[in-house]
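Problem 12. The chain below contains 131 residues. Write out its predicted structure in token notation.
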Amino acid sequence: MATKTYDPKSVSVIVGGVYLTGFAESMVEISKDEDNFEAKVGAQGDAVRTKINNSLGTMKVTLQQTSPQIAYLNRLANSGEMVPISVISANDPKETTTATEAYVKKQPDRKYGKDTEDREYEFQALDLKME
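Solution.
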């Protein structure tokens, strides 16, 4: 069995043409909002599978409080501007997730204290594509 190495530096997140930097320990999380298929069984046991064509998804990006892109993402949250997003992992296996239309759902929670706190930006992706 060959040992493989994952490198977080081989993951890029691009929002509206801007490369994000200053990630927290949990960099990015991506999920579809619905399953791809749904199964239903009738009273006599007949099964039907329905394809769900919902392409909505959620992309959460977690940055350190000191990331240079915090101000940019705050502006996106306030404006509601639609932007493209790409998440590219050059690790093995190579994976790409894209949305040509996404927006920040709301401003992240803010905490100030003895230590820096992470900021989590949640994007609603209208046409999530995971490859």
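Discussion. The first strand starts at residue 11 and ends at 15. Students who got a different answer should revisit the alignment rule from Section 12.3.
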